[in-house]
Structure formats: C-alpha cells, structure tokens
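Support case: zinc ion complex. Customer-provided input:
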Amino acid sequence: MRIFTYSLFVVFSLLCISASHPPAIYTLINADMPYLLDFYKTRHQQPEISLQEKETSATLAKELEQIGFSVTRNFGGYGIVGIYKNGQGPTILYRTDMDGLPINEKTQLPYQSKQTTTYNGQEIGTMHACGHDMHMTSWLGTARAMVAMKNQWKGTLMLIGQPAEEIGAGARLMLEAGLYQKFGVPDYGIGLHCSPTLETGKVGFGKGYTMANTEMADIVVHGVGAHGASPHMSIDPVVIASMIVMDLQTIVSRNLKPTESAVVTVGAIEGGIKGNIIPDKVTLKLTIRTYKEEVRQMVHKRIEEICKGVAIAAGIPDNLLPEVNFPKKFTPANYNNEDLVDAMTKAAAKAIGKENVVVTEPLMLGEDFAMYGHTKEKIPTVLYWLGTAPKARLESDNIPGLHSPYYYPVPENTLKTAIAVNTNALLELFNNK
Ligand SMILES: [Zn+2]
Ligand SMILES: [Zn+2]
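Agent response - structure generated as follows:
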C-alpha cells in the first residue's frame, strides 16, 4: 500500500517538476507533507533511547527500501546504511541520529510520547527532547524528494541512520564497523541539528569549529584519614581537593591564550561520611570542553601538574599522589569545512531566501557527527542548525532548550525548511561541486 502511495507521489511530483528551482521543490515537498507529518508524529510518540533503537531503525530501513534504496541493517548497533546509486558522480553522506532520551515528556502535545523504559533500575518515560524525530523525518523527506528528482542529479546518496548519539557512541560504532571500507569513502558529509533558539523557517551555519571536543575526567585525591578533632594527624584530602578545584580555574584564565576557548568544570565532589572524620579519599568529576587538539593536550597537562603540585605541597607521599583518569574515547570537536559551508549557504539561500540563512556562533556542546569528518580520510563535513521555535516562543522569557521536557519543534514549517535546504544543497553538491 505504501509502495503504491509512493509511486503516485513520484508520478505526481515528476509532473510538477520541470527544473530544480525552489518553487518546484516546494510543490514536491507540499505534496509529501501529509505523509511526512504522519511519520513525524508517530516517531515522536515512540522514542527509543540510545542503543535500544530497534523499532525506529527497522522503520527507517523499510521506508528507504520502499523508495529504492539498498539498505544494510544492524550496522554498528542498530545503525542502518541506505545507498541510492544514481549514475556517475560524487558520493554524499547524510546522517540522521535516531535515539530519544529518558525524560518524562511534559509538552501536552496531542502526539506526546507514551513510551517508557527502564533506566538505572527506574521506570521512566522516553522523549524525543533533542529533536532526533525531526532529524529522521527531514532525512526521510529529503530521500523521497531526491528519488522523485533523480533525473536532476547524478551520484550516490549514502543515508546513515545512526544510533546512540546521546551517549556519544553511535558514530564510532558505525565507523568502527567499517562504514567507509564497506560502502566507500564519501566526498562530503552533511547533517543537521534542531536549534531551540533559532526561529522555524531559518537555518544557521558556522564555519570551522562549531561544537566542542567533549570528555569527562575523574581525579582521585588520596590523603591520610584521622579524627576531625586531630587534623594534625591527617593529610586532609578534602582540603587538597578544594585547592585543586580552585587551581583548576586558572587553566582557562591563566594558561589558555585569551583568543582560544576551553571549559574545565568540576561537576561533582565525592568524599567523606561525617563531620568529625577526615576521610582518606575524595573524588572530583570533571567535564572538559575544547576545540583544538593542542588546547586539549595543554588542558590535560595542566590538570596533571596542578594535581601533583598541590598534593606534594600538602605533604602527600609519592605513592599517594592523585590519580588523574582521562577517558580513552571521547567525542572530537565538530569542524565545518569552509568551502562546503559556502556551497550549502548559497543553496540554502536559494531555497528559503537569504534573510533566513544566518551565521551561528560556536557552542561548547558536543555532537558525535564530528567523527565522520575526523577519520584519516578527512572528508569535508558540515553540521548545520535547523530553526525550530515559533516566533512567539522566542519573544517570551521561557524558551525550553534541548533535553527539556517542554521542548518541541514546530513540525510543518520546520520540516519544509529542512527538506528544501537539504535537497537544494544536495543538488548543488551533486551537480556543481
Ligand atoms: Zn541531545
Ligand atoms: Zn541531539
């Protein structure tokens, strides 16, 4: 039934299209909107959290197969790879993520999520609070439009349905499963993310570093415990940890070049049981955000030096120096290739008007899309921001951000914008790059 519906859609669309001008694309998108809105609302109602995207990925795989993609399932967890070969030309990767979050939705939308899951032993609702349902629907809508317009471009469209973005694992899972070895190295990689602070109908592009390298670190500060009334018999790890926390503040303020960016946050301090016992251990938990690799290395070096130096000054013996544990795996900073941003900005302006394409500032958030451009092949990639908020919401003093139980994108206009921008960008890249 869906195949039949889609055939009618393609025939209708092809009748409407004579050239790749935006109005023709809008005719195509408008005709597909009821189908896509239905798909979007269903996805919104059925979020699956990271590494549990079984039904979501099966649905996406089926949708792509119905329009002629060759699809590989369960590639790196529940990842899917859809390939559409359409003659000689470049290969372009376009990625969507698929996972929702363990959040009880409070939007009161008629299509609010009804799903629950067990998370850390607790029953909790699941919600697409990061807009990955919108990402999937824009991706599917773009696929359907590109197939309908297949006589207007040549090349290979590589559509990735990526699991586990929220835990920074999915892109690595797919790349380590041999994404580029098995399906070929793409010439370009593109993706988008919903923006809660950009108006629906607009898109935002930043050049160079737009999102940060994100990693957590643990510091275990050892000491010598004693009675709280006999501090002279202790080497107090609470005091040492406190001094380390304060000294860590000097990394960004005193060691980092003022024109560079980094964040060192101590988000948790754990240690001690009772007011009258000096403990023998305190743990600090950090989040570290950087753009450049050399800055990351400098931050690591200074954290280690500060921990060691403060402990030595407090009289800690060599065998009890603080242990600093940096993760082996982390999400690299996202770098938007300048030329690709120029090409996509031009295409976006043609699709939605120059006034709706804005330049966005870099953020210290992380996104594992960065990894597709971070392999040894160094393919040019761009992750752009998709505006999702109604104007009234932006003018209010209550703007729910990503991961808020109140966040949701305006469905129809946001979808149309994404598909118009994506199709124009892909046509530009397939035909003119
Ligand atoms: Zn998120
Ligand atoms: Zn997200």
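The first helix runs from residue 2 to 16.

Case will auto-close in a few days if no follow-up is received.
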